[in-house]
Specification:
Length: about 70
């Protein structure tokens, strides 16, 4: 498997993880004010997931232009 194929598979996993984090944040917002104290941790998880996804996509773009 090439590096690009491996990265595409990783992006697929990261995308699923980011979408789950997005849904967790959305679900939390609908339940407010219940569990309001978990906002920072749920938001950080979503932020980290999308940051990892964006970084992987940038690396893929870089590899594809070489």
């Amino acid at each position: 498997m090439s590096e690009i194929d491996t990265l595409k598979a990783e992006i697929k996993k990261l995308s699923a993880k980011a979408m789950q984090a997005k849904m967790d944040l959305h679900d939390l917002s609908e339940e407010l004010p219940i569990n309001w104290n978990s906002i920072p941790s749920v938001a950080q998880k979503a932020h980290d997931s999308f940051a990892a996804l964006e970084a992987a996509r940038a690396k893929l773009k870089e590899l594809e232009t070489v």
